[in-house]
Amino acid sequence: LAVLGSLGVHLARGRSRRWIITTTATFLSVVALSSLAWKLAAWLIIGVAGDDWKVWFGLPAKADEFALGALLALLIAARRPILSTRQSTALALLGVGIVAVALATRPAGAGEHAAFHTVAAVGFTLIIGASVMCPSFFMNRVLTFGPIALMGTVSYSLYLWHEPLMILLDNRGLLPHGGGLGAFVWGLAAVVPLAI
Q1: Cβ(18)–Cβ(86) under 8 Å?
Q2: Is 109 left (phi over 0), alpha (psi -120 to 50) or beta?
Q3: 48-93 per-position pLDDT tens digit
Q4: Where are the alpha helices (DSSP H) in 52-84?
Q5: Given phi > 0 = left and psi -120 to 50 = alpha, else beta, which region is 47?
Q6: Environment class of residue 127 by beta-carbon count within 10 Å: exposed (0-12), middle (13-18) or buried (19+)?
Q7: Which of 15, 57, 73, 99 would be 123's cystine partner, CB 3.0–4.6 Å?
């Protein structure tokens, strides 16, 4: 993605703002649709098992979720839309409804990875968009509240590093085996400071 971004910057030199926005939106849409097509093909045609993590959590399978966030960021940067509280509420409720339907109809196995994550990402994109595009919307105030904003600041680092750190600590015998609250708290205490 970094190489494609660099290529995009090079190709954008001397182009109009409208061309850059349209081309970027088109590229991100193709990325999202290609990722979704890959997941559907892996599930329905190839028959990849639901626990084949390298397929379901690799870049091709997660690119649609990345593209949705990037499209939202592009929309906000390009147009700076400001919605009324009523519009933001409607957009957020639509997002919550989509996430609720996704959770209620969540399939097991490979179907979960092929459809659920994408549908949930659409819902969360709408919720985030509603809060960002209306400064007076209550979710904007919730998301800018100090502790919540701090979680947002460190969440991507936690997302990227938690599993490799858990594997490393487990291989060294530093994580307890078995379930329970004690194992969870110990794992959390060991992994979070390292992942941040």
Answers
A1: no
A2: left
A3: 888 887 888 888 989 999 999 999 999 888 877 788 889 999 999 9
A4: 53-56, 59-79
A5: left
A6: buried
A7: 99
pTM of the model: 0.74
Q: Hey, what are 113's tokens?
A: 């990875």
Task: Work out the number of other CB atoms within 10 angstroms of the CB of residue 74.
Answer: 16
- The residue type of 148 is I
Of the candidates 123, 2, 127, which has an alpha carbon nearest to the alpha carbon of residue 65?
A: 123
Angle between helices 117-132 and 17-40 (to 10 degrees): 150
**By the 8 A CB rule, do 21 and 78 touch?**
yes
DSSP state of 106: P
Residue reference for tokens 């609250």: 181
Tokens describing residue 44: 């329905």
